[in-house]
Amino acid sequence: MDIQLHYTEKGQGEPLILLHGNGESIDYFKYQIPYFSRKYRVIAIDTRGHGRSPRGTAPFTISQFADDLYDFMKLHKIEKAHILGFSDGGNIALIFALRHPEMVDRLILDGANLCPSGVKLRAQIPIVLEYYITVLPAHWQKKIRKRRAFLKLMVKEPHISPKELGKLRVPVLVIAGTRDMIRDRHTRRIAKCLPMAELRILPGDHFIARRSPGRFNRTVAAFLTVSRPHDL
Fold first, then answer.
1. Which domain does 127 fall in, by range?
2. Which of 9, 23, 84, 181 is a plausible cystine mate for 108, CB 3.0–4.6 Å?
3. Average pLDDT by consecutive 10-residue portion of the chain (232 residues)?
4. Nearest CA among 16, 41, 23, 28 for reference residue 213
5. CATH code: domain of residue 11
6. What's the CA dihedral at 122, 22, 145, 152 to 10 degrees?
7. How far apart are CA 60 and CA 78, in angstroms?
8. Which stretches within the chain are classed as H helix?
9. Residue 175 CB: number of other CB atoms within 10 A?
10. Are residues 20 and 106 in the same domain?
């Protein structure tokens, strides 16, 4: 790893890793960190080039972010963890789980997508337009260049085959809002393709963890605590 990721840690117990969305930071989980730290060792990470984590020299891609998570867990001697990923954080978590299922206990995908077309047009069109409009200004303005790197993640990534999901044999909770920017049928397809998935559609938009933390936290807590055959 060419960088050290910034993170915050609170609580004791089984590790629960939190991965934020595009252009955000660990601050997104301000209502989850204190709640889950009462029972878990909560570790919220700033993705490469986000928050207080440096950009480094490696590619700025979701695939690289998944590799960064692997390096982080190895560095901190975390053999296995629950992983909760929101939006692009969910995409990172899913790619990581497909590569290293033995390192994932339970997986929570909040507002994740398999490909750019999984995003509703009314949300995706402004992103695509801004990405192409900023192509020239990005050459001489650092701030715009950084913004464009974030936009590129949403315009060009991820690319996860639904067929791959059938290989993942870990319990997964798929969450989305009733007014999510992710297409409802896309979210349902993710849940259907994952052999051990549960689907929860909660009232709200894409940012339910921030805007409806009580309901969101209780839903995740129930998923993490219910006994399953593989736990016995």
1. 116-157
2. 84
3. 94 98 98 98 98 97 98 98 98 98 98 98 97 89 92 97 96 98 98 98 98 98 80 40
4. 28
5. 3.40.50.1820
6. -60
7. 24
8. 33-36, 62-75, 88-99, 121-133, 142-156, 162-165, 184-193, 208-211, 213-225
9. 26
10. yes
pTM over 0.90: yes
The answer to whether the beta carbons of residues 105 and 78 sit under 8 Å apart is no
Encoded amino acid at 32, one letter: Q
User: What CA–CA distance (Å, rounded) separates 5 from 91?
Assistant: 18
Task: Please report whether residue 231 resides in a domain.
Answer: no
In angstroms, the CA 125 to CA 131 distance is 10
The domain total for the chain is 2
Please name which of 119, 35, 146, 150 lies closest in space to residue 84, comparing C-alpha atoms.
35
Nearest CA-CA partner of 95 in 55, 60, 67: 67
Whether residue 218 is found in the same domain as residue 126: no
- CA nearest 83: which of 52, 112, 119, 63? 112
What is the token pair recorded at 194?
């994952």
Structure tokens at 151: 């936009």
Helix (H, G, I), strand (E, B) or coil at 14: coil
